[in-house]
Amino acid sequence: MTQPQGEVFDLGYQRYDGPREGRMRARKALWTNGIRTSLGIGRGARSKIMPILFFAAVMAPAVIVILIASVTGLTDDLPGRGEYFTWIILLVELFSAIIAPELLCPDRRDRVLHLYLVRPLTTDDYVIGRWLAFFTISLILVYAGQLVLFLGFTLAADEPFKYLQDNWLDVPRFMAVGFLIAAFTTTIPLAVASFTPRKAYAAGFVIALFVVSSAAAGILTECDDDGRDPSSECEPLTGDNAKWFELVNIGFVPIAVGDLIFDEEDKSPLDVQIYETRGGEWVVVGWYLLLTLGPALLMLYKYRRVEI
Amino acid sequence: MPPLLQASGLTKIYGSTTALQSVSFELESGITGLLGPNGAGKSTAIKLFLGLIKPTAGSAEVMGEKPYESVEARSRLGYMPEHDCLPSAVTASEFLTHMAQISGLPPSHARTRAADVLRHVGLDEERYRSIGEYSTGMQQRVKLAQALVHDPVLVLLDEPTAGLDPAGREEMLLLIQRTGSEFGITIMLSSHLMGDVERTCDRVIVLDEGRVTEDGDVAGFTRETQSIQIDVDDHRAELVEALSNRGIEATIDGASLVVELGAAEEYDTIRDAIVETDARLRRLAPRRHQLTDIFRGDTQ
Asked: B158 or A225: whose pLDDT is higher?
């Protein structure tokens, strides 16, 4: 018979006398948890599929363009960094619509929100923490492809140093536009999610909002085909006002602001008309701010009135 | 030093409904039961102490601070709600670590505390399973664990045995008793179940229609009376008659006979009557008050 080699002691309940970092730690924890939730970290494999797919889809255009640039040696004739955002905006909006509600809806559905609000957190801390978490993810999403494009073009150029000298200004530009896109695509889905504990309802509503507004803008800016010579330029049914109706497509608004920052030559014809109109740029910027700050304030208000 | 918890003229009015009316009491240590029927104002009182709502008048203070004004004061409070409040998709370990951080603990300490507390509530083995896979009893333990994970000085438990089967209820009450006595954490337990309060609490505050109707030690409410309780399995009617023949009036109270004790010698008389009727004696003891008597106004 073997002799016992050791003994297990129950130390009993130990009081905690370590550091307590208060509200700031609570805010950080909420931010970190929001990032982990968005990416499906600490959850089953199924939770990670969507983020991986969207990251791959957003990176694909940048990688393809760089591959072409490295094979052909062309850098000037390929689509640029301003256009990249136009390609990926729909994907970023779709990603936000599907993933962002994950940060708010389950906390209300499972009533975990109660447990947050009896700790050193206010409803404002909660909303801002969740917003910052998803904003961080969105920033990474929109910057990653741009960084690949910029570094790829630099390395593929015949004279990388000269390329950097000529194009360095694009870095603060794409960072500014990326910031605006991320703020926009973070706020609207989270604001919608603050009204329902069901993720599917929030995601469906946001997708419908983008689709319906895009369709409505399409109808309002449609060409008048009656008796039009096919070779002639498009004359919208709504005439001169068509340029404003383009802004009904809310998913397009961050791109319109981006065109202003990038000062791209290949703006859409209606974009050109807006910016040629006196004060047009302020209308676009004002509309963007309304669509971003409005839902943000609504979300804060909604949570301040939440019933516990 | 201010009291750990203090209600001073605490009043909460919702529209035309007065949930609490000028309630005052203090709490220092031990386990205190907040007892009352549904709608008595128990949950409103807890929400006021947690800072979730503001009082209409008076004040609710914890360690001298008003939780609805001082957010930091909440970092030393624990709360176990009556309703479901757990995420189903994450493991108990991950959830508790997160909640410890939300209470202000650094990540490395939070992980250690989560493991310790889960061991204390008996979920050591299951801590890496998703909470959604847990039984109701296990989920109740996770709810208690999240209230303890940051080592609060005061824990507010709202109907902690709600939805549990008898075995689960027993385990939860034992756990609460240990938390209060062994862990040294002050507990305020809200319940409409007198048995839960009688089993676990040192003190009871009775709320009815938003007012404190009784406040005192549980031992005081359950002290011995001047009555003797006699439980017999058979020949009850004969025993009543035999006692009556000896000049002792016995009243029937449920399954028991109750005799108002005059002199100590009456014990012998009762014994003789039981022997004479050949009744099978189950119990002969001084009767104690029960918490149910509070609602009958029979605690004097």
From this structure: B158
